[in-house]
Design a protein that fits this description.
Elements (H helix, E strand, L loop, with lengths): L1 H28 L2 E9 L10 E5 L10 H11 L4 E5 L11 H10 L5 E4 L2 H4 L4 H10 L3 E2 L5 E5 L2 E7 L12 H16 L6 E4 L6 H4 L6 E4 L8 E2 L3 E2 L1 E2 L3 E2 L6 E5 L2 E5 L17 E9 L2
Parallel strand pairs: 1-16, 2-3, 3-4, 4-5, 7-8, 8-9, 9-15
Antiparallel strand pairs: 2-16, 6-7, 10-11, 12-13, 14-15
This protein binds fe (ii) ion.
Amino acid sequence: MKILNKLKVSHVIPSFIIASARFLWTEDKHIVTTHYTYRSKKLPKSFDGYKIVQVSDFHNAYLGRRSKNLLKAVEEAKPDAIVITGDIVDRRTPNLKRAAVLIEKITGIGQTFYVTGNHEAHYKHFNKLYDVIGRSEVRNITKYSAELERNGEKINIAGINDVWFFGDEGNPKTYRNFQNELRDKVSGLPHGFTVLLAHRPELLSIYSKNNVDIVFCGHAHGGQIRLPVVKGLYAPHQGVNPKYTQGMHEQNGTTMVVSRGLGNSRFPFRVFNHPEVVVVELRAEA
Ligand SMILES: [Fe+2]
């Protein structure tokens, strides 16, 4: 009997480990597409039905054969514009090959705009990444804003570097400089509807002080582990039980879209929190 029990235990433990590993792998690599509709009276009529597809927090992820699924999901969404909202690399990964491939391939699908995340700010090989982006069709809009055009009508698209590019987070000057740059940037745009790309969702109160209609953010990784009541468990710069981990949020007339992102960083897995491609369809309200 003892031998039989030992045999059972010796089978149960490896089976449990294999099942858990399989579960975590699927949770981590199965990409889903999340659709949102955004309505505004300010949006020019020509932009009714305009689709913005967001790819965020790739973190130079190993997706294996699923990297094709990522590009397929973006392509199937039929984007009018693609936005990459930072952390395309992870500062701990020396090889940026996967990020480079993504940059190269995604521009084949549609016009793509990019801003940095905090990982780019502390990335040893940032110059290499900058070269890859510079050689590609991706438009880095951290410096220069741009316009999106449809049937002769235009809206603004602006972006801002992650806060870490402005200095040490412990120094209050850093946030002041970030706010000042954002204010100067947005106030210098032509009058009209404005899309902002910015990495961090916890700074919604700053974005909403400016004339921004919709802002796309990432950074929170969906809170890594999502449970029915607490939802996201932890997010960088928001801590435990974070407020902004996914979805749409509104403050002072500014709507923020938060992507759960695609990759991981120091925390190496996701639970009930599949990596996502976000699709936002803009609708012009009468
Ligand atoms: Fe980040």
